[in-house]
Amino acid sequence: MQAFTSGHPGATQRLNTVAHLEFLRDYSLPLSLDAFTAIRGTLDTYMKQGTEQARQANDDFFGIENSLKSWRGQIGGLKDAATMNKKRADEKALRDKVNASAELKAKYGDAWDKVAAARGSLPPYNIERVFFENGLSLYTQYFMIARTLVRWTDESAKPNGQRLPEYSDARKASIERQMASDAPIFPGVEQAKLEASLAVMEAKVGADHPLVKQILGGKTPKARAAELVAATKLGDASVRKSLMSGGKAAVAASNDPFIIIARQIDARCRELRTKYDNEVVGVERDAYAKIAQAVFATHGDAAYPDGTFTLRLSYGQVKGYVDNGKPVTPFTEVRGLYVRGDEHKQQAPYKIVDSWMKARAQVNPTTPFDFVSTNDIVGGNSGSPVINVKGELVGLIFDGNIQSLPGYFVYDQSVNRAVSVDARGILEALRVVYKATWVAEELTNAAAVKTAAR
Known about the structure:
The chain is an alpha+beta fold. It has 18 helices and 9 strands. The chain has helices spanning 18-47, 51-78, 81-99, 102-108, 111-120, 123-133, 141-155, 172-180, 187-205, 210-216, 221-231, 237-253, 257-299, 334-343, 354-358, 423-433, 437-444, 446-453; strands at 2-7, 312-317, 321-323, 326-328, 331-333, 368-373, 385-387, 393-400, 418-422. The strands form 2 sheets. It has a 7-stranded antiparallel sheet. A two-stranded antiparallel ribbon has the order 3-4. A hairpin with a 2-residue loop joins strand 3 and strand 4. Helix 1 packs across helix 9 and helix 5 runs antiparallel to helix 13. Residues 447-454 have low confidence and may be disordered.
């Protein structure tokens, strides 16, 4: 079955050079996996203390789980020889076309080497940059609030055009809302995250690093996390608003431990950011613009640009694939839900919710539930409609298969699949499980919809 989908796919990096991908594979992604696996672990321990602790940490935990899944898929693809060999071959073919033309070579020929040099210069200071400037060493809302207050009071004193972009006048209202927000900050959750991030910092950056010593203050990560969280007042919106309105003098006089740390490390953090912006971001901005122009100059509109969250259509086909030598059918059926739940004795994460268990005898077990298609999607396409050649809605995209995660960098039609819930499964659920027959009728009765719209 042919299908197309409309949506707003997020940022892809299909133009990334081999050198850039090798950096992600060898440095960036492994660091993220190590750090957030540790943070996930401390959150898991915290959640097991009780129902309330589980509720408090739920969003953080599953957000990290989702990121870890994505990163594992990406690094798996980048470690796959076939994927990287395809990328190398495509890059060589493009460079050969550029170098074959004196005009194109003069305009674009140096772009790949510039990216390689920029990425090659990054490893010696990248660990410091990620842990201190990016804040991974103090992975807690308290530090991000403290960093924002310290930098806002510094940056707002400068002319608007000379500030860091996130502290421009246009962002002031957003920062004020953040400081005034009454959304709860749970100390136990923040302490669990902080303990893990401090431990990873100590292991990765080194216990003898001056900033590590400064942050830990001679204590273990566990003891220091408990001390910092117990002493901070930044969970109180009134304190945050007072510091924001008090300006630089109030922030400079604050004895909140997170603000003290933010002030202490800020000079080095800014150095690292400036170095990265000048030697990597600035260089790659120019180089990737050249590579994009080279693609257009050599391929015309046969190649489409990277995703940028803007609206686009993707054409594809409902089609199975092969996973580790085993064929995967394009459709699943409702009965598969119950089979999987029974196999795992109704234990999380395979426990079936009560509404579906109560309806087990009534649902049609062979109703198509999900399907996969070759539509080229990434994060941002969740909820996108899937339309057949008759213009009928046949499903809604909600995910990609694990093999699609390297699709941020390279699309492989043999295994990349969008995963959609089948419209027939939606209707079966509405009618039988949720007893919302009126919704199903409204969705399927075109005449009624037209009458209601008049």
